[in-house]
Amino acid sequence: MNAWLLQQRNVDNTSCLVRANKQNFGGTLNNEDFITAIEEVVSSAAINDTISNLSSPPGRKPPEALIQQSLWFNALSDSDKNMLKAIVASAVNESVFGFLCVLDGVRAISDTEEGNNLSLIHGDTLLNDPALESLHDLYKNV
Question: 45: phi > 0 → left, psi -120 to 50 → alpha, else beta; which?
């Protein structure tokens, strides 16, 4: 199975944190391809889905909170809706950026140095290789 594998680098390299199916990006990804994929299937999707859910809540019986948010959102002027879309985009992008900082080891998630040393591997390729441009830097350049 060809999958993205995020594992914590430790003494025995056995601690698996996340496994996600590879999307429509054939072959082995490099770090730039990975960031392009993340921008498409995570960032853009989260922004678009959030606005879509606010505009028209999905499902037969959406949560009451979402219904109230939708009523509020749909009552906004177009310029206020655009402002909210920009705020949602900023929040999503900051979240993804922060997560990539964790993967790059520049934002701590553990009190120990070993606990902050993560590997993101696709096939045989180390995507967050310290010798290459950092994932969070590549993301800001998308």
Answer: alpha
What are 99's two structure tokens? Answer: 């997560």
DSSP string, 3-42: EEEEEE--TTS-EEEEEEE--S--S---HHHHHHHHIIII
Using a cut of 0.85, tell me whether the model's pTM lies above it: no
Residue 127 has pLDDT above 90, yes or no: yes
Q: How are the residues of the chain apportioned to helix, strand and coil, as percentages rounded to the nearest 5?
A: 50, 15, 35
Q: Cα–Cα distance between 84 and 131 in angstroms, integer?
A: 38
Give whole-number Cα distances, 125 to 36, 67, 120, in Å: 16, 44, 8
Name the nearest CA neighbour of 42 among 7, 86, 94.
94
* Amino acid present at 72: W
Q: Which of 25, 42, 51, 52 is nearest to 142 (CA)?
A: 42
